[in-house]
Amino acid sequence: MTAGNKSGLARLWEGLKAFQNKVAVGLSIAVLFVLYFTVFAVVAILARLSGKDLLHPDKPEPGTHWLKREPVEHTIQAFSRQF
Amino acid sequence: MNILGISCFYHDASAALLKDGVLVAAVEEERFVRRKHCTDFPTGSIAYCLQQGGITIDQVDYIGFYEKPMLKFERILYTTLATWPRGWSSFVRSIPLWLTQKLQIPSIIREKTGYKGPILFVEHHLAHAASTFFVSPFEEAAILTVDGVGEWATTTCGLGRGNHLELTKEIRFPHSLGLLYSALTAYLGFEVNEGEGKVMGLAPYGQPVYRKQFEDVIDVKPDGSFRLNLDYFAYHYGAEMFSPKFEQVFGPRRKKGEPLNEHYNNMAATVEAVLEEVMLALARDLKKTTGAKYLCIGGGVGLSSCSNGRILREVPYDDLFIQPAAGDGGTSVGVTTYINTMLLGNPRNYVMRDAYLGPEYSDEEIETYLKQNNISYTRLSDQELIEKTARLLTEQKIIGWYQGRLEFGPRALGHRSILADPRNPKMKDIVNERVKHREPFRPFAPSALLDKSPEFFDCNVASPFMLLVADVHPDKRDRLPAITHVDGTARLQTVTREENGIYYDLIAEFDRQTGVPVIFNTSFNDKGEAIVRTPEDAYKCFVKTGMDYLVMGHFLVSKDGIR
After folding, report:
1. Fewest C-beta atoms under 10 Å: which of B3, B255, B399, B482?
2. Does residue B169 surpass a pLDDT of 90?
3. Does the beta-carbon distance from B96 to A65 stay under 8 Å?
4. Residues 6 or more apart from B209 whose CB is under 8 A from it?
5. What does the alpha-carbon distance between residue B519 and residue A75 come to, in Å, rounded to a whole number?
6. What ipTM does the predicted assembly reach?
7. What domain range includes position B214?
8. Which of residues 192-231 of B touch A (CB under 8 A)?
9. What's the number of domains chain A is made of?
10. Which domain holds residue A8?
């Protein structure tokens, strides 16, 4: 196999990879689109119909915008969690 | 006990190593990849921290991460639902990143480092709070953290005492002082997370004439708590920071590169006035509720040196502490101190008195670099180096000054600095034109001997991290025209021999030669670049800009020698 053939194959492989990436991005967008306009749509509409303000689930006391923080459990176990 | 802290995947990625309670290394990843505000996993920073600590990854007892990813993801999902269907563009941009990266933190850490031990997740604002209080010199202090957003919180306050800190209340996303300031940064045509300092520099050129209209943008209570009118903003659902309504009320945004005018100056002045007003109210209320003598500030808004200066002058705290990397870069330090003190119960035995926590290159390494690249140089003794550099400054030369360990945080504090004579009224323009290529309205900062700084500046406390803006005494402004901003202020760094060594000696020698204990100090980088780390970075920056001399360790390199 000559160097020219190798570089041709390499170019073909690069092209295939770029195409594959574009397909993957396109598929991701399609899946997210379906998710966003079905599952998220239903939950968002139900939340609105039930009067829930998801950006402000907790209300402050009158006269302030501060919210009280929940006490933190200072243990290794609590901090091992990602939530 | 070795604890490694990591911050990444948002902005200002960094790593820090706490060894037996002592912070031995902390550095931002941008210094390794030379890309400002780099978000990448901090591979270079971690390798450096381990090397500096003289340990391997197997000897790390805990790794701490600077936020709780699932809580942040919860906020993203709630916001997506609350803003549906306007949030589509934001959703489609963020979710793939979350699925492939931000929800895989433990496996990414293990894969990139080979670490097998426990990984702990410290809530973002707790990390900010710990990054300031636990390394402060105070036994007890009020704590205020203010930034763009962490998981949900954008502002928190509480009290630190001894080995314990507690944040008691918070303001949550989407109400954020940091994001308000960033929205105005975008409106003024600057880059978000980069141009906030430019807005601060622009503000003194205008007047806060839109303060009344801003009452509809932000509601501030007497206790400093605030709530934004979301009709003006778009950051919670789209790619833009502000909504069309903002432009309807305040006029069109400034396009990038478009000339600034009085209107934009006034908008900068207004948002700066709002920020300072809120920060003052928060600090006052915290003083009232805690009675603390001292205040520790964390979070990116802590880099707002104008509001810090006003808090110090106008609220009766005895002193403030803000660590040099108050933004997200500093949370890697915060997670290590939080784990060490709060979770493991170890005593606090470290105070951050200087910011010199990054890599250092010895004279031998510098000389090897110079020789290998056939760069002519002169080797000088300590005394010769100081006398010669001070004389060159008086001869109006611009000098790249590269000494010791790299600074942690965004400010160059005399280890990776470009120095000049502050007495020359043209020096600001000269440095801007020949070296820094920055917007002409932005001020440059002074480094002053701590013991003599009150003679020139209205500041009676130390400002080692250049995070306080102080008035230059009116009768001294003519003597320091290159570092005095248009409103008569300067962002001051105070310097002591104990913490700054040779840099102190240089300023003292400049004082001996000129009668002025102050020099002009700006970061060692060109526009858009991260601050230099290695001798090679420094030399390349020196060659491509208009600096006259480069002082690296004990070596003096002249531009004449390489022309």
Report:
1. B255
2. yes
3. no
4. B266, B269, B270
5. 48
6. 0.92
7. 172-321
8. 219, 221, 223, 225-227, 230
9. 1
10. 3-80
